[in-house]
């Protein structure tokens, strides 16, 4: 499910009996419920659309504090497999979550001009903590896909909430860093003059600024770009969110591309749950590949969530330097999340 995702979903959704390239007839795929928390927001609405198009989803549960019935009614008219139900208000969170296999969390306030991801912390951290308490209670075995920023802190917050509830499973909690991969692929393809659909670029570290480290030395197809171009591509990938915020001139942040990236990762989780072999994506997870407790790298997905956290592979000198530079900031963000969860 790469750049052809939308075409593939539209094609698959047109005939309930058609066999998809994921190995299932869309009418016979396992029953899978996906819940989206924050479904009426800027990311939530296009993400709801994309998940409605996914033939692996049989039940789509949309939740937000306001506006959800309209989004649910709108999306429900699309002639694809999944049944759609919308839930509004904190009192209905449990109904939205019950029986969910995958929970996607784009809830929170968006970035505005001049605002860093860290500025979002106090608001979004509280939202995430409340939602994760609900997950622990109503669907403790679900795969949790965290989109709410700052991901470097919200994933540790979620982990602490689940630990206190006695439901934490490190294999089932993911920070969605797929947008960094999407951007790295797009920017690399433009400079390398190759077909973007064939490009793969691992992105490691975290999901904010300098903590984002694309490994262009491992990009395929390999184009042997000059060092100054690699430096510029790395910087643009790290600043991709700011680029969109500034381009929207105070009227939004990266919502459409984030929804696309979120749909890619959720699809990978569903394929893993359904037993499709060799599903690998980058994600911010509990990890031992570095001395940090959480780190983004390639992970193999399966029926239990994370089946294997893959190593970093061979790094260029530039990437080794970037790895050491990102560690202090990422460590601080992780600790900030843990501290918030334990003090509030």
UniProtKB/TrEMBL annotation:
Major localisation: mitochondrion
Binding site for substrate: 111, 117, 149, 183
Active site: residue positions: 207 (proton acceptor)
Subcellular location: Mitochondrion matrix
Sequence ranges assigned to domain Lactate/malate dehydrogenase N-terminal in this UniProt record: 33-175
Family designation: Belongs to the LDH/MDH superfamily. MDH type 1 family.
Name listed for the protein in its UniProt record: Malate dehydrogenase
């Amino acid at each position: 499910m790469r750049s052809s995702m939308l075409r593939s979903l539209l094609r698959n959704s047109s005939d309930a009996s058609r066999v998809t390239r994921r190995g299932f007839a869309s009418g016979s795929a396992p029953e899978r419920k996906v819940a989206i928390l924050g479904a009426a927001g800027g990311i939530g609405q296009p993400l709801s659309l994309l998940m409605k198009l996914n033939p692996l989803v049989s039940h789509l549960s949309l939740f937000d504090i306001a506006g959800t019935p309209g989004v649910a009614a709108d999306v429900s008219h699309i002639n694809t497999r999944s049944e759609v139900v919308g839930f509004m208000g904190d009192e209905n969170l449990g109904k939205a979550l019950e029986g969910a296999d995958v929970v996607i969390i784009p809830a929170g306030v968006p970035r505005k001009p001049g605002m860093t991801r860290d500025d979002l912390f106090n608001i979004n951290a509280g939202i995430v903590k409340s939602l994760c308490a609900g997950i622990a209670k109503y669907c403790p075995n679900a795969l949790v896909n965290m989109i709410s920023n700052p991901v470097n802190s919200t994933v540790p917050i979620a982990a602490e909430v689940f630990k206190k509830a006695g439901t934490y499973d490190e294999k089932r909690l993911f920070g969605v860093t797929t947008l960094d991969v999407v951007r790295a692929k797009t920017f690399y393809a433009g400079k390398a003059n190759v077909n973007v659909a064939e490009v793969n670029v691992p992105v490691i570290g975290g999901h904010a600024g300098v903590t984002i480290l694309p490994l262009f030395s491992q990009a395929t197809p390999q184009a042997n770009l000059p060092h100054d171009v690699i430096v510029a591509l790395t910087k643009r990938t790290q600043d991709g969110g700011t680029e969109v915020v500034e381009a929207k001139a105070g009227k939004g942040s990266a919502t459409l591309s984030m929804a696309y990236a979120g749909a890619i990762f959720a699809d990978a989780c569903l394929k893993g749950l359904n037993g499709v072999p060799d599903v690998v994506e980058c994600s911010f997870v509990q990890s031992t590949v570095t001395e940090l407790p959480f780190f983004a790298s390639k992970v193999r997905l399966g029926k239990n969530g994370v089946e294997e956290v893959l190593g970093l592979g061979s790094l260029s000198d530039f990437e080794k330097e970037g790895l050491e530079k990102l560690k202090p900031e990422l460590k601080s963000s992780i600790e900030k999340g843990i501290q918030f969860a334990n003090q509030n």
